[in-house]
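Your task
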Amino acid sequence: MYVDERKAAIVGCGFVGASIAFRFLQQGLFTRLVLLDVDGDKAEGEAMDLSDGLPYGSAMEITAGTYDDIADCALVVITAGANQRPGETRLELLEKNVSILRDIVGEITARDFGGILLVVSNPVDVLTYAAWRLSGYPRQRVIGTGTVLDTARLKHLLGQELGVDSRNVHAFIVGEHGDSELAVWSGANVSGLDLDQFCRIRGRRLDKEDRERLYRQVRDSAYEIIRRKRATYYGIAMAVGRIAACIVRDERAVLPVSAVLEGQYGLEGLALSLPSIVGRRGLEEILEIPLNREERRALDVSARQIREAVATLAWGQPSPVG
């Protein structure tokens, strides 16, 4: 199977898919981008609108297409699915979006596709596991955006709280991309300085109550955005752009993507968001970073919720090997 390392496709041209396409146009990672949507006119309209900006962006071809056009893509981004309504949890989206995903994955696997599937649709951890099961692809080639966006939200808030560039803040949100996610405070640092040590140097205070407040802001951020503007899309577009850059440039960067576990932290039979090395082949390795006792308990709770959701799914075929 032939893979064009500079060609990508986006399945789903709603707010999220269109924002990701715009981000790809800005980045210049790809020379060919195919847009697919159940509404063909919507895909064509987005391709036309984006193409108008090409003289001021990157040299690339942006077209609307069909599943026949994605067989040679290095990356297929799946954003199609029902939107999260105000007050609705990501897990409540499960039944609707698994049905949509089943159709999409069936179309992709019917072609000689040899690239990487990147799942963006929610609930992303469960859908990442479902995409792996339904596709039969090796786990390295099926990943989800996981808590990459949540981690960015935490870094941003910590940067504001500490009065420092958020790009110098290193901290992870892990577990479910959703209500049971957790912040790994025990490993947080600012340019290598332990978080508590940095606070002392800067004369700042970040006690348990402050950390809980920041965590809740991160966890509830999507709900607050959806309440105000009905949807979130810019932040996740930036997160997808970061993951895509790691793949195209073979960066082997560490990002908390959602991936199928094979015994990490004693867990399997689910996909969960954990720091992982991401490169040209997709998932290279899931890292078992140190967690304190409280964080480990919280991770187990998060994993249990995802596993319970996975257990509700009916499979039309056995799980793949690899």
Remarks:
- Confidence is low (pLDDT under 50) at residues 317-322.
- The longest strand covers residues 4-11.
- Residues 148-311 form a domain with the L-2-Hydroxyisocaproate Dehydrogenase; Chain A, domain 2 fold (CATH 3.90.110.10).
